[in-house]
Amino acid sequence: MSHESKLAHQDHLNRFFEQHPAPSLQKRAMKAMRLLESAYSPLPGKPEGWSAGIIYAVANRDRRACSVPGLLNSEVEAICDVSLGTIRRRAAQIARMLEW
Question: Using an 8 Å Cβ cutoff, are 100 and 61 in contact?
Fold first, then answer.
């Protein structure tokens, strides 16, 4: 993954967690991002879609996927500036890529 792409993903994740602080979720999301960065280069598409997908995938890793805890789906869409369809699609891709 290019340096610019890494920075863009990290920027989107940081922006989300500034608006919705969740230290445990943030730590797991950053770890997932590092795993993806080390294994896949580059990720096709917009960084905001992948970042939102990382958050959604990590938040729903060990449970039935429904949303990010404490937020409505519409709030996740607004914060990430990505449609829920894109978020779910990227989350599913991430789960497969990380073999969750």
Answer: yes
